[in-house]
């Protein structure tokens, strides 16, 4: 019998029981599959709630969406949109819904899955999809979804490679085993694509281990932190304020408190629900793992899978998909108006959620971090439609990190919770960065916000003198035309200086333009021959994405000439004795091309710096440096066009994936934009200042807050490197000079 997660016995105890269709499919799978199959029912995948996932080690994964719909009430319009006949409304296609779950497994949820797909598109077949229609036969589905489009070859090909339909009469062993064979979950030999590493990554996502109390770290919470986490003691009774707004000075342990409060909220919810779900929302995608790490240190026993940690936009996207709500952007909409369109129609559309309020599955508690980045409408949507009124609703934030220019009132964030609890104890009080932060508030923010009160820290006196603060703060203003080379030189000097005792793992590079950071990442890796941990897409990945596209779409492609030229040459040099190349070999050829093109970009921008590195890579490919340069010259015009396409494309799915799977202790330097690193902290921070954007943006409007956020990301040591931002040179230099004088 297949192994079920949760067990059938536990599913039978759920507050919300499976639908008739889900129950029928679960019972069938229990009778049909052996114990080499794992069946996951309604797994919580960071906001996604697929009905059933089947996984078989060494073979693959299948996502099944279950519909109890009476299909007599539906028809497909001329655009193949699903229309609910009684009110003539468009609903999301079950096909699109299950494919969205699959795409999110690659783009968001499973570590390394997107990377292997970029390297070799065949890895996209690791996960297959099906829809089970409980109230329809196989022939009915064929007549409705296939036969009317028998002349549409493109549509039929799409179905063949992407989706299977299961009718109620398909729940027999012969048909289902045939389906599993078709999608390679049953095969003569194991899959070379679904490796043990990928299987374990899926396993950690689908069935994370129970967090045991013994795995936590006893934490000495302050009295104020205890009040927020456990409640306030009044007349010997601990009373919990379910709705709270928490405001804290930087370094006050807001995220530590959030994690502990979330666990207590879960424990309280057990009295109402035997399988409670706690929703933890952020704005910054990367905070997911930071909060996850904080929760792993909580000294309690709890199932981590019941805590959904996700940013607001991904959460709403997932819920719209769970609710079968169509999500689309008009094709001809001005790209600059897309964000406004999505906010009006989806993310901030209270009426949309009011319309579907009876279909929404509520969470037993909700905690929101970075509340200063939230629109008021978002708060109302979450509180009124996604939170059980009996559960916790706790908001955490710092208005001084309001880098997106949200509305403030009386120098504070506008929320839907009355009152505020304050955390005034800064756990970095012994470091110079605390003094810098407070001086920045006074001199740059002025009376825009209230100045942080660090009164709980007090003053440390040692033998009659104030104790020397730890850490260092350095500032330099550079007017060099090439910030990347100078930045590399400065950072490498710090790493290689034995007296500094700085490890690459302790260093984070923060800036606010992706072009500079992406170029620095490329420069650093090939100059130092060391890895980095960047939240941005690498240049090699950018090239590889486009090379794979050319390889798949070579009909009438303007790049096919040079593409075939270099790929055929490399095939002969790298695999001289092969009559026929395997697909893996073709992927390796493209990877070599991507690396060569990336290093060539460095050579053209940083003359004479990477010539030997390019020659070394050419030798690995069996081509001379002069021959490669001749190739670039011969195709210079079309390759310039290709380079422009590569660098101007959007890589949002890759970037979001890297942010979601970002961890601090990688052993390498970290590279990130300030806004993506918000909430994290690093022992040593190199903060890069560039001139403001030329056009008006929210970052220009909130540049003070952006800079303050960058400054407060450091735990101990801060290096501010200013490239030509004269306005902020005038603001920052006097503050730092003043601090250095007082510290002498």
How is this fold's topology laid out?
Blueprint: E1 3-5, H1 8-11, H2 20-32, E2 37-41, E3 52-56, E4 60-67, E5 74-76, E6 82-84, E7 89-91, H3 94-109, H4 113-119, E8 127-133, H5 138-145, H6 153-162, E9 164-166, H7 173-182, H8 196-206, E10 210-211, H9 223-230, E11 232-234, E12 237-239, E13 243-248, H10 254-269, E14 278-282, H11 287-296, E15 302-303, E16 307-311, H12 312-322, H13 338-347, H14 350-355, E17 365-368, H15 376-386, E18 393-397, E19 408-409, E20 412-413, E21 421-423, H16 432-445, E22 461-462, E23 465-466, E24 473-478, H17 483-496, E25 507-511, H18 514-528, E26 532-534, H19 539-552, H20 560-574, H21 583-605, H22 611-620, H23 625-634, H24 636-648, H25 652-660, E27 669-673, H26 674-677, E28 682-689, H27 698-701, H28 703-711, E29 714-723, H29 726-743
Parallel strand pairs: 1-2, 4-8, 8-9, 13-18, 13-21, 14-16, 14-17, 17-18, 24-29, 25-27, 25-28, 26-27, 28-29
Antiparallel strand pairs: 2-3, 3-4, 5-6, 6-7, 10-15, 11-12, 19-20, 22-23
Helix pairs in contact: 3-25, 9-10, 10-11, 16-28, 16-29, 17-18, 19-21, 20-21, 21-22
